[in-house]
Amino acid sequence: MPFSSLGLSEAILRALNDVGYTKPTPIQQKAIPAVLAGKDLLAVAQTGTGKTASFVLPLLQRLACGPKTKANHVRALVLTPTRELAIQVADSVAGYGKYLTLKSSVVYGGVKINPQMMKLRGGTDVLVATPGRLLDLFSKNAVKFSQIETLILDEADRMLDMGFNRDIRKILSLLPRKRQNLLFSATFSADIQELTSDLLKNPLQIEISPQQPVATTVQQRAYEVDKEKKPALLSHLIRSKGWQQVLVFTRSKNGADNLVKKLLRDGISAAAIHGDKSQAVRTATLNAFKTDKVHILVATDIAARGIDIDGLPQVVNFDLPKVSENYIHRIGRTGRAGSEGEGISLVSADEVKLLAAIESLIGQTLVREVDADFIPAHKVPLTRQMKRGPKKPKKTKQKKCADKGLI
Hints:
By secondary structure, the protein is α/β, with parallel strands linked by helices. Helices cover 40% and strands 17% of the residues. The protein has 2 domains: 3-208, 3-Layer(aba) Sandwich (Rossmann fold); 218-369, P-loop containing nucleotide triphosphate hydrolases (Rossmann fold, 3-Layer(aba) Sandwich).
């Protein structure tokens, strides 16, 4: 089925042809006609299924035929959980709509608000925003919602996980009641069900459950290693296998920063991206990674949302995620669009149960690997150990007493 069979305009089909897209994915086949028809939609799909285009394409077509946007007003609002995802969605809106006369903007925190306020003065057809910054702009009367026709919540489950529930509820209370609502989520949790019942009216529900949660083009392997030896093993793998572009996931911000320091000490080009970094730093770091100026990008799950790099060869789980579904999101960053990729997990003894949960979720056992050439660094250099000689056995209490002639 080609895109031309879905009722999209020539201008949008031309933009799709420019990027080489000819056949829609399963979620696009189901979602595009529903959005064009003006229906509310609940779509549950994993990362890498093409969900962004499934709402951006029909949204642009519907907006192209509508009224002119008033000053500071918005006609379509896309809410995303992170700055990186907001930028990615905004890029898609600009790319797919380049042959249309629509205006689009993106706003997020971590940067100065005044330039964003200036850009919104003339009105915008599509506004992509993170919840906190959007409310800041509204409080300054820089954005108005009375013209909104469509609301999209992208990665709604992640927004709720990040504690945006109150902000989302506040934004909903400010919007016109008569509007189209689209909700996209990777999971259908209890929180999502509750939000769905409050937000959507007689929605069409689409659930894309791939036969393989992780693409078959991704080779998944696990290295069992002591926790303290993980940095040394990662450095060894990067060097011995000649990895040039690797996305590494850690569980915490401090963990990401500490790992980068160790990689830099080993002479490996690396940088971290997480919520404590300013937006300017995050954007610059991501661009450096995309252009091969930085070879290893260490990220937390939240900061990595929205990182979409064509042909990314390796993803490494330095720490296994505590939520099994996040493993699928992580590994889904590689092996896209039919290209081959590797998903490597470094597993310590305290993560065995997490690994078992992941394997149960994906329905397969990860191949266990042992690198025979990896020799962990000793806390005390071998030369010093040899000079000192073998350790003397500790004396037992009985032996001590015997030596003193007490027994």
